[in-house]
Amino acid sequence: MKKMILLGMMSVLGACATSDKQIADYLKKNPKAVFDVIEDNPEQFIEVVNKAARKAQQNQQQKQMSEMKKQQEQQILNPLKPALSDSRRLAGTAKAKITIVEYADFQCPACAMSHPVIKEVMKENAGNVQLYYKHMPLSFHPMAEPAAYYFEAIFKQDRAKALKFYDLLFENQKSLKNVDFIRQMAKKAGADMAKVAKDITSTEVQMIVKNDMSEFEKMGFTGTPVILVNGVALHGAQPKEEIDKIIALTTVEPK
């Protein structure tokens, strides 16, 4: 029976004048023929499917990159304008020409990958760059939201201690599995733990995190990290060269 089905299929597919409609009609009437061919050639089938999946993924990535490039070109002319104030500045100088706004999640692996890149950019442009850290704790990272509250509670005490806490969490992200670890990092950063315990549940701290999340969503962002460089968005973990390109394009001195 299988041979008869395959011969029937071959007779249709082998005809020089066969149309797409004829092929489609045959397969609709004889769907089992497709499964018979797959069953007889499983390795080839898997190879074809995987190749098609890779091609689809590459096409999707190229499309996303193209769309992102267009968005960046538009944002260079019309920069995004997040709410910024000196009270939220984590590092750098207030009058710096380069403003970096980092939307991140302390438990996000891609955010941890971005961390050393941002640190390098800050070091290379010391005296001419300022950094703002904004929160977007994702629901499937259970320690991200508590870490955000601890960060803001420490920030209320001292900016330098908050910066140290920020570094410690990203540099030791694999150990970020419970609140005890967050407390350990807060102590290591030099925070007054009694004040932290009081402030993490305060309305002020809770609203800072909530407002950051709301701003992130209103800007149409969907995943962390997002790095705004002078109002131009870079999505995901990006190499330093990409940040450098945006800096160069947005700090051109007028002729």
N-to-C SSE string, H for helix and E for strand: HHHHEEHEHHHHHEEH
Rg of Cα set = 27 Å
CA(first)-CA(last) distance: 80 Å
Mean pLDDT over the residues: 87
Topology, number of strands: 5
The proportion of residues forming helix, as a percent range, comes to 55-70%
Strand content: 5-15%
Descriptive overview:
Strands 1-3-2-4-5 form a five-stranded mixed β-sheet, sandwiched between helices. It is elongated. The longest helix is centred in the N-terminal third of the chain and has 36 residues, at 42-77. The protein has two domains: 1-54, no CATH class; 79-250, 3-Layer(aba) Sandwich (Glutaredoxin), CATH 3.40.30.10. With 255 residues, it is an alpha+beta fold. The N and C termini lie far apart (80 Å). Residues 1-18 have low confidence and may be disordered. The chain has helices at residues 2-13, 20-29, 31-40, 42-77, 109-124, 144-157, 159-171, 179-188, 193-199, 203-218, 240-250; strands at 89-92, 98-104, 129-135, 226-229, 232-235. Helix 2 packs across helix 3 (31-40) and helix 6 (144-157) crosses helix 9 (193-199). The chain contains eleven helices and five strands; from the N terminus they run ααααββαβαααααββα. Helix 5 (109-124) links the parallel strand 2 and strand 3 (129-135).
Which SSEs are present, and which pair or pack?
Blueprint: H1 2-13, H2 20-29, H3 31-40, H4 42-77, E1 89-92, E2 98-104, H5 109-124, E3 129-135, H6 144-157, H7 159-171, H8 179-188, H9 193-199, H10 203-218, E4 226-229, E5 232-235, H11 240-250
Parallel strand pairs: 2-3
Antiparallel strand pairs: 1-3, 2-4, 4-5
Helix pairs in contact: 1-3, 2-3, 6-7, 6-8, 6-9, 6-10, 7-8
